[in-house]
Amino acid sequence: MTLIVALIVIALVLFFLEIFLPGGILAVVGAGCLLGASYLTYEEYGVVAGAGVLVGSGVVSLVFFFLELQLLKSTRFGGFLRSEGSIQGGSNAPAGDDSLVGKQGTALTTMAPSGRVRIDGRNYEAAAQGGYVAKGTSIEVVRVESFKLIIKPLS
């Protein structure tokens, strides 16, 4: 009888800890403890007692689970575990618009194939169409992609 009660208590503790260490392993071990307690009860006291322990311990587990959720909602410790903040952010600004196509400028960095270029006094992220452009080379914008210009060196 002591082993049966101990297995049920261990299962309840494992279910309690599953809230803090999610992953399902503790719940599976806890369910195994409940099944083991039910089997031991069946072996010692019969089918009705075994089924009673299984159903009763399952109901008690669910009740404790919902009580735990309510306590965590209303306590300071639960507030520590719960995140109520928000994440602020945005996406990168586009490199430019199609009006830059055909404009000329200068490579500010060696581009192999990416780097920075200056066009009309503004700096842009760019990628060289041919793969390599030396620093200081005159360039022309071929097309505009989402976050960079595609350029080619002027001959």
Which characteristics define this entry?
single chain, alpha+beta, OB fold (Dihydrolipoamide Acetyltransferase, E2P), 2 domains, five-stranded mixed β-barrel, 48% helix
Characterization of this structure:
With 155 residues, the protein is α+β, with helices and mostly antiparallel strands. The protein folds into 2 domains: 2-81, no CATH class; 98-153, OB fold (Dihydrolipoamide Acetyltransferase, E2P) (Beta Barrel). 48% of the residues lie in helices and 19% in strands. The protein is built from 4 helices and 5 strands; from the N terminus they run H-H-H-H-E-E-E-E-E. The chain has helices at residues 2-20, 25-45, 47-74, 76-81; strands at residues 104-107, 114-119, 122-128, 138-144, 149-153. Strand 4 and strand 5 form a beta hairpin. Helix 1 packs antiparallel against helix 2 (25-45), helix 1 runs parallel beside helix 3 (47-74) and helix 2 runs antiparallel to helix 3 (47-74). The mean pLDDT is 86.
Strand order in the sheet with the most strands: 1-2-3-5-4
Write the element-wise H/E pattern from the N-terminal end onward: HHHHEEEEE
C-alpha Rg, in Å? 33 Å
User: How far apart are the first and last residues' alpha carbons, in Å?
Assistant: 92 Å
Structural class: alpha+beta
Strand content: 15-25%
Could you give a short account of the major beta sheet?
A: 5 strands, mixed, barrel
How many individual domains? 2
